[in-house]
């Protein structure tokens, strides 16, 4: 597709000399390459909001007859026909000849602008809305919501295309008014960031904010963030917050609040119900349990893991039952044994034992066609997690000429394990590391690789190693296989039967 400008958009001094224009690139300001009748090439930049479509470079004589396809500012309300369906919605953006429109149903569609028929537009009026906080009952349990970002308390400003987080308490309560029936809510903004940008400094920041709310007698704390690394955050908080004596629930949503299938409200309400009804101390994750809207799973933070890119029930409890299930507004305890342990571990004086923000912890995935060079970068790291295959394996055995590289891999792992903690965690996610079964596993243990008997998934292993190096550096190797926060469960008789 080529884009050209009508005659009245061209600089006067060029108007009579241009044969045709070709678009080179563009966003708010469009760059064009102008070819003159005598073959010269000139460049110009013209700001435009209209889109014109031609099949290729056009002679100047055709330009005056060009008709704009669309001039749709973000936020405009549109009604149109497409494929025999009459639709309406709000323009999010127009780019590369395609319009992104949020339909009144809450879903987004991306449609070619040339195929929108019977188009009617109504520009958006810029109106300042000031939310008024609904009345709150101070006799209800006090719950604090700490925001770090994510879609759970956000909406799209269609005039700009940006996602705007609603962190003011009045705006938050306006989005989720039912929370005032359950708790007296206070809201604080810590960060407004993508969860992929989280670093140890942010985990420490959140933990310190949680402890401050505990000193203010909060009944519970909800931490909102994006779901991509939510399980890392939950595991980090479980280690950093020693003796935590209130429920701390990390909540996200897979789908934004303005989508018809959003899980934001259900997850938030589930977290509030759990906090106010069960009052179990610890760090948890509250997310959908199944495809419906009636069940919210309460997963212990050190066991939580995101296992799907987009499903609302993307989070699972790995190698342990969920703690509770919130169904139709009622909390049912599922794992009474673990709840009793959590209550016993609570302290009247919890404290923050932060992560060392300068640490370098690596994760190396063992895989076919591995090379020792992949491990070289970890020579300057403080610790490494090996995501091993099966029961906890890595390619370290030489059986023929084609596997000679494995000797180098074995040598490098052994060298690393002498200098820094190297721990094994299973790629399989579920199950326990058992390096006693096969001889390569026993060799890895002899080399100093830790993790034997642990049923800790990779991301929690990563955070545990980081926390031990931060707080117990000299004893990290001795403590790693020890259960510290419920991340290592006792071996079952069935598992013992696999030992060879």
What do you see in this structure?
- This protein is an alpha/beta fold and about 500 residues long.
- The chain folds into four domains: about 5-65, OB fold (Dihydrolipoamide Acetyltransferase, E2P), CATH 2.40.50; about 75-120, SH3 type barrels (Roll); about 140-350, Rossmann fold, CATH 3.40.50.1170; about 360-495, Rossmann fold (3-Layer(aba) Sandwich).
- The chain contains eleven helices and 25 strands.
- The chain starts with 17 loop residues before the first strand and ends with a helix.
Summary?
With 500 residues, the protein is an alpha/beta fold. It has helices at residues 169-175, 200-215, 230-240, 264-278, 336-345, 373-376, 405-419, 439-447, 458-471, 476-479, 493-496, and strands at 18-26, 29-36, 41-47, 77-82, 85-95, 98-103, 108-112, 117-122, 142-147, 154-157, 162-165, 184-189, 220-224, 241-242, 247-251, 282-288, 295-300, 304-306, 315-317, 324-327, 330-333, 351-352, 361-365, 383-388, 422-426.
């Amino acid at each position: 597709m080529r884009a050209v400008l009508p005659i009245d958009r061209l600089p006067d001094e060029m108007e009579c000399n241009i044969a045709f224009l070709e678009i080179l690139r563009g966003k708010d300001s469009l760059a064009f390459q102008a070819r003159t009748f005598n073959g010269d090439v000139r460049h110009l930049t013209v700001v435009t909001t209209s889109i014109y479509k031609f099949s290729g470079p056009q002679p100047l004589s055709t330009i005056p007859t060009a008709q704009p396809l669309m001039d749709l500012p973000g936020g405009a309300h549109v009604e149109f026909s497409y494929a025999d369906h009459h639709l309406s919605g709000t323009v999010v953006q127009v780019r590369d000849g395609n319009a992104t429109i949020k339909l009144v149903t809450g879903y987004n569609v991306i449609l070619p602008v040339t195929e929108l028929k019977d188009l009617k537009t109504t520009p958006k009026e810029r109106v300042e809305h000031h939310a008024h906080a609904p009345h709150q009952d101070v006799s209800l349990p006090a719950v604090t919501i700490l925001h770090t970002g994510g879609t759970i308390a956000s909406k799209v400003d269609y005039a700009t295309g940006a996602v705007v987080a609603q962190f003011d308490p009045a705006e938050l309560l306006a989005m989720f008014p039912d929370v005032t029936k359950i708790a007296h809510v206070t809201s604080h903004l810590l960060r407004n960031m993508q969860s992929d940008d989280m670093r140890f400094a942010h985990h420490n920041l959140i933990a310190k904010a949680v402890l401050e709310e505990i000193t203010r007698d909060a009944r519970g704390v909800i931490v909102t963030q994006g779901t991509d690394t939510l399980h890392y955050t939950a595991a980090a908080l479980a280690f950093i917050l020693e003796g935590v004596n209130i429920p701390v629930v990390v909540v996200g949503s897979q789908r934004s609040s303005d989508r018809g299938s959003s899980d934001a409200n259900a997850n938030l309400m589930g977290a509030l119900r759990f906090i106010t009804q069960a009052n179990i101390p610890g760090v948890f994750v509250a997310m959908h349990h199944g495809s419906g809207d009636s069940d919210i799973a309460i997963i212990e933070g050190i066991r939580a893991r995101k296992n799907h890119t987009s499903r609302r029930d993307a989070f699972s409890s790995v190698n342990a039952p969920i703690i509770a299930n919130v169904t139709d507004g009622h909390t049912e305890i599922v794992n009474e044994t673990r709840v009793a342990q959590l209550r016993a571990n609570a302290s009247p004086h919890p404290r923050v034992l932060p992560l060392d923000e300068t640490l370098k912890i690596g994760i190396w995935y063992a895989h076919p066609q591995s090379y020792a060079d992949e491990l070289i970068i970890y020579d300057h790291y403080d610790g490494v997690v090996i995501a091993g295959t099966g029961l906890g394996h890595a390619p370290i055995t030489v059986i023929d000429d084609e596997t000679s590289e494995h000797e180098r891999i074995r040598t490098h792992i052994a060298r690393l394990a002498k200098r820094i903690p190297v721990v094994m965690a299973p790629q399989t996610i579920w199950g326990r590391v058992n390096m006693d079964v096969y001889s390569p596993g026993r060799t890895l243990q002899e080399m100093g690789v830790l993790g034997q008997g642990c049923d800790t998934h990779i991301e929690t292993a990563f955070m545990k190693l980081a926390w031990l190096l931060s707080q117990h550096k000299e004893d990290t190797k001795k403590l790693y296989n020890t259960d510290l926060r419920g991340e290592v469960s006792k071996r079952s008789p069935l598992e013992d039967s696999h030992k060879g």
